[in-house]
Design a protein that fits this description.
- This protein has six helices and no strands.
- By secondary structure, the protein is an all-alpha fold.
- The protein has one domain.
- The longest helix has 28 residues.
Length: 171
């Protein structure tokens, strides 16, 4: 994989995980409620996990920025776990739950599962060793910054569109 593409994936995912962690830490009560509503764990475990997950997301975001070995597979794993938790509740017919993703609240839907699967796939693809080392040129920094900015805008826009389409813009 091209080293610039790998860097774009890492930086984009680091922004995603950092903003999700901050949102969950700022809105702990909402996140606790979302974790309990999923009904996948006993309440005490769900509450403990709700305390740990934002910090795990922050650690993954930091690992992605610092290019720590294992950060991309950890990101993919967490995204796959989130997709599985959503899919289980969708299969139970529980579409009224807030996804707990951070940002604008929205009910569970198949698009959120697909989005997490797509992001997990990007993380896994980015975990393959770059084809060479990155030798920075001024244009490389511009390409990375522009690509990450565009990807962040696409992500935020799609999140808001999904929230409005599914009636989840409750904040």
């Amino acid at each position: 994989m091209d080293p610039i593409l790998s860097l774009i994936i890492r930086m984009g995912l680091s922004i995603l995980f950092a903003t999700a962690a901050v949102s969950k830490l700022r809105n702990r009560r909402d996140f606790y409620a979302a974790m309990l509503a999923y009904q996948l764990l006993p309440p005490r475990w769900a509450m403990s996990l709700a305390d740990i997950l934002p910090w795990a997301e922050a650690a993954i975001a930091t690992g992605l920025i610092l290019d720590v070995n294992g950060a991309l597979p950890a990101a993919a794993s967490l995204l796959l776990i989130y997709a599985l938790a959503m899919a289980v509740n969708l299969a139970r017919g529980r579409r009224d739950l807030d996804c707990g993703c951070g940002g604008a609240p929205q009910p569970l839907n198949v698009w959120l599962v697909g989005r997490n699967l797509l992001l997990a796939g990007a993380a896994l693809a980015g975990s393959f060793s770059p084809a060479g080392s990155l030798t920075w040129k001024p244009v490389d920094a511009l390409i990375v910054a522009s690509a990450v900015s565009v990807l962040a805008l696409i992500y935020v826009s799609s999140h808001r569109i999904l929230a409005k389409r599914t009636g989840g813009n409750r904040k």
